[in-house]
Design goal:
- The radius of gyration is 21 Å and the shape is globular.
- The strands form two sheets. Strands 1, 2, 3, 4, 5 and 6 form a six-stranded parallel beta sheet that branches. The protein has a three-stranded parallel beta sheet with strand order 7-8-9.
- Strand 3, helix 5 and strand 4 form a beta-alpha-beta unit.
- The longest helix has 23 residues.
- It is of the alpha/beta class and 405 residues long.
- The protein contains 14 helices and nine strands.
- Helix 5 runs antiparallel to helix 14.
- The site of zinc ion has 4 residues, from loops.
Length: 405
């Protein structure tokens, strides 16, 4: 009589542990752009922080934390590119803010020995072989932070930033930024006004910013490449990207778009064009897709009916995102199309979907610890997510190796 409850207790304990064991074993996916320490860069505009409980309660929430230390542990991410960003109006010193974000990343790995910060592909590969999880530091917006040799020594050599998203929302002395869609293009007000008077469009009529890479921009990119920093093309105008291609080619860098969607389905310069995707294929690069309806429009070519699901879920949100995964995978291979979650950036995520058997059906995608369910839901919606998902980590390391052999 006394034995049965004991075994039952053990059985129950194992049952309780099982989901966590599963989470740990399955840690094998990649996120190319995640703002883990956004409260530092956005100040009071952002609710929540890395150590506080998540503040987001809905996919519509902007400016509320969607990823923190706890959610990171429960995500299945094994490689996370940490996007360091400081808002110019919300921080007293951009450089100090970036330093404080790196301090937080270092404090996290010091407290959690299963995590490391890798500065190069060989360090990440070693960490993976020891079943560890990896943070990679990236900087979003070079201008104002990387200006001098001293900055390069501080942020690249000493603190270990290894990826730089060179441009961001507002054009600066380094080059032109990609226009966002419609009125969001006003994020780059001066360029957008210029564009109203003298409009430029790509071959498919999408408004583009003609601002090129400046001489100062070229100098800085070359200095970064000399230090084996991987240049992220996301957010750069088409014209600036064209100037960057030969520099990247000379350095043998695979093209990288850490967070984007496909322009064929989301008509904005901010998304990758078919031509840009072909160059990612040619250079054996990678892209990260943003799970956000602010970057994923409804796709009318998808079937209107999808089983018993309400019609308005069949061409939108998760189903449309799955189509971005399918189309990009055809061009560059399914292991090269990963997540670029942009979590903690002020974006809406994915509204409730249908028939995926995950809680995305009820609540949509609204926080980082749902990433394992996001993969499951995408697979259910016929996105070619690789099996096993560890193909993502292998691909990332192989691609990063070319930047820093
Ligand atoms: Zn961004």
């Amino acid at each position: 009589m006394s034995r049965l409850p004991k075994y039952m207790a053990m059985f129950l304990a194992l049952q309780l542990l099982a989901p966590h064991l599963h989470t740990l074993n399955a840690s094998a996916s990649v996120d190319l752009h995640n703002h883990l320490f956004m409260n530092e860069g956005m100040s009071w505009m952002f609710q929540g922080n890395f150590y506080a409980p998540l503040k987001s309660t809905s996919w519509k929430d902007k400016f509320y934390s969607r990823m923190n230390g706890d959610a990171l542990q429960h995500s299945d991410l094994q490689i996370v590119v940490v996007a360091l960003y400081a808002h110019p109006l919300m921080t007293l010193s951009l450089r100090d803010s970036i330093h404080r974000q790196i301090d937080q990343a270092e404090a996290f790995v010091a407290d959690h020995p299963e995590w490391v910060i890798a500065r190069k592909a060989s360090e990440a590969a070693l960490a993976l072989s020891m079943k560890k999880r990896v943070l990679v530091l990236s900087l979003e917006t070079a201008a104002g932070i990387l200006e001098t040799e001293k900055d390069l020594e501080a942020f690249i050599d000493h603190r270990g930033i290894s990826i730089v998203t060179f441009m961001h929302l507002t054009a600066d002395h380094y080059g032109g930024v990609a226009f966002l869609k419609g009125s969001h293009a006003l994020a780059s007000p001066i360029d957008f006004l210029k564009s109203l008077f003298s409009p430029h469009h790509d071959d498919n009529g999408v408004r583009v910013n003609p601002e090129k890479l400046s001489d100062k921009g070229r100098e800085m990119v070359e200095a970064l490449i000399k230090r084996k920093v991987w240049i992220d093309l996301a957010h750069s105008s088409d014209a600036t990207q064209k100037d960057l291609y030969p520099i990247l080619k000379k350095a043998g860098q695979p093209h990288l778009y850490t967070h984007t969607t496909l322009r064929r389905y989301f008509q904005a310069e901010r998304s990758v064009s078919d031509e840009q995707l072909r160059l990612v294929a040619q250079t054996k690069g990678m892209i990260g897709l943003i799970p956000s309806v602010d970057m994923v429009d409804p796709i009318e070519t998808l079937p209107k009916e999808c089983g018993s699901c309400p019609k308005d879920t069949c061409q939108t949100g998760l189903k449309a995102l799955a189509e971005h995964f399918r189309a990009a995978s055809l061009e560059i291979g399914s292991d090269a199309v990963v997540l670029g979650s942009d979590l903690n950036a002020p974006l809406q995520l994915i509204p409730p979907t249908c028939n995926t058997g995950t809680d995305l059906d009820q609540r949509g995608f609204y926080r980082g610890d749902q990433i394992p369910q996001l993969w499951k839901a995408l697979r259910k919606a016929d996105a070619p997510i690789p099996e096993p998902i560890s193909k993502y980590t292998q691909k990332f390391i192989a691609t990063w190796r070319k930047v820093r052999p």
